[in-house]
Design goal:
This protein is α+β, with helices and mostly antiparallel strands and 165 residues long. It has two helices and ten strands; from the N terminus they run ββαβαβββββββ.
Length: 165
């Protein structure tokens, strides 16, 4: 028999302690598999080059000037590398405003701009979309929080994403 009169397995270990030991061993095996044996499987040794375009709306001239070609961009929450700016297009920002007579019209907002940034980043394409730097989702119409060494952008909408090689 495995358990004696006192409830001890093999005369040394009680059943509760044995179950706790099994759980700890399973956790160690699970974490080892997740972080050691499967490390790097999400990112290829030869990642693709992804190009995505983000739209940043209703910004002032200061923000426009803080975003330049060749600036490195990072995720503001996780500090994940999100690529390098390869293109920048600035347009006057247009929004719906209510006139004094009550009509709603689409008009330019003074001293406000829309910035379209083209960013290139190493990443991978999978069945669900694209992963920048192998671990950050970038999909069309998703919102990102980006930053560089000067500015943090709270809402940048991805308007296009594609693999370029």
């Amino acid at each position: 028999m495995l358990a004696d009169k006192k409830g001890k397995l093999f005369g040394r270990l009680n059943i509760i302690d044995f179950m706790a030991l099994v759980v700890v061993i399973l956790l160690i095996v699970g974490f080892s598999y997740k972080f050691i044996f499967s490390a790097g499987k999400g990112v290829s040794n030869n990642p693709d080059l992804l190009q995505y375009t983000v739209s940043i709306t209703d910004v002032r001239n200061y923000s426009v000037n803080a975003l330049n070609i060749n600036d490195k961009m990072y995720d503001a929450k996780t500090d994940t590398y999100m690529g390098i700016i390869t293109g920048k297009e600035v347009k006057p920002y247009r929004d719906y405003i209510t006139k004094t007579d009550g009509n709603v019209v689409l008009a330019e907002k003074p001293q406000r701009y829309e910035v379209l940034l083209t960013i290139e980043v190493p990443g991978v394409e999978n069945n669900y979309g694209y992963l920048a730097s192998g671990n950050r989702d970038i999909n069309r119409l998703s919102n990102l929080q980006l930053e560089n060494y000067i500015i943090s952008i709270q809402q940048a909408k991805v308007v296009d994403v594609k693999k370029i090689n």
